[in-house]
Amino acid sequence: MTHEEDQEPGEIPDGFPGRYWHALDDGRIQCDLCPRFCKLNEGQRGLCFVRARQDDRIVLTTYGRSSGYCIDPIEKKPLNHFLPGTPVLSFGTAGCNLTCKFCQNWDISKSRAFDTLADQAMPEAIARAAAEHGCRSVAFTYNDPVIFLEYAVDVAKACREVGVRTVAVTAGYICPEPRAEFFHQMDAANVDLKGFTEDFYQQLCTAALSDVLDTLVYIRHETDCWLEITNLIIPGQNDDPAELAAMSDWIVENLGPDVPVHFSAFHPDWKMMDTPATPHETLARARQIALEAGVNYVYTGNVHDKGRQSSYCPNCQARVIGRDWYELSEWNVAPVGNTGGACAACGTRLPGVFDATPGTWGRKRQPVTLKQPSP
Questions:
Q1: CATH entry 3.90.930.12 includes domain 65-367
Q2: Is the pTM of this model over 0.85?
Q3: What ranges do the domains of the chain cover?
Q4: CA-CA to 171 of 20 to 30 Å: which in 96, 105, 203, 355?
Q5: Are 29 and 42 in contact (CB under 8 A)?
Q6: ∠191-340-140 over CA atoms, to 5°?
Q7: Which residues of 164-199 are buried (b: 16+ CB within 10 A; e: fewer)?
Q8: pLDDT 10s digits, 177-206
Q9: Are 32 and 177 a contacting pair, CB within 8 Å?
Q10: What is the per-residue pLDDT across 357-375, written as a single tens digit (0 to 9) for each?
Q11: Any idea what DSSP says for residue 37?
Q12: 3-state SS of 343-368?
């Protein structure tokens, strides 16, 4: 069951009426947004910290509030097949519905203090700022946007009105009904497939792999949302070649060979400071395993490796897009229609969303302050 109430235009509420919850017989309210199903008494917050029970309903406490705005290269999300080279206005809020011990954005995602949320903006202001700064898209990132679904969906709708697309960077831990609403509003998503065993998810994230796999299948087959996958490889935890091969086989069988996969390097952080950084050769091995399994587009991330960060035609092996970290070099993509691309050498269609010419944003990172409406 979902519950919805009207909100006064322009208001930035402390508790925006949330959707996806129901009352229990024992007087508690269950949040039905994600598979944690937090059961709350009045005044309690869920594990994500941003969804709370207030006046006998679930509210979102971070609607219209952000930890800051920054223009990034789209490749940083990472998305390599979605408007390459273009700028994306990125922002997050606070909190997370996973408890990953290796979190690389823990200062935001693990925040319990709302002074982290320094900037305020309603959806229309974000869409307007993206358009004014020449951004082709807005990314919900830094912390998982599924926990601020109502805000993200409203921003996506406002962006669509001004011709700006939206991107979700997410772990995909969400229930079926809200999942449908959320991803049908997104133009692209990068889903963090953190490992490929239930033990990994249970021990390091207190979550379930099966729910994430369901989300991947749903996005790929039930929406028009462009999908890419990231796997952060952690030494001694999810770097076993057999596990990487099993994951790659699953991707090919259930999602198809054309969903790009990014293997990214871990660096010591949060509660895993004693775990070493991922060796470069581990990323190279993971990429080779995935290619041998039949994944057509495989990339390494968080390292300097132009050869393995570039895109190659799976038919003739020509380099169609050269990348050096977030900087584009070669561009051998022939336009097909308004948003399609093909290998300029052999004509093989390239999966993704492409402009006729590449963007020129490069590796710049530009903080942005949104204009606030006059009182």
A1: no
A2: yes
A3: 16-60, 65-367
A4: 355
A5: no
A6: 30
A7: bbbbbbbbbbbbeebbeebbebbbbbbbbbbbbeee
A8: 999 999 999 999 999 999 999 999 999 999
A9: yes
A10: 999 999 999 999 887 655 4
A11: -
A12: ECCCCCEECCECCCCCCCCCCCCEEE
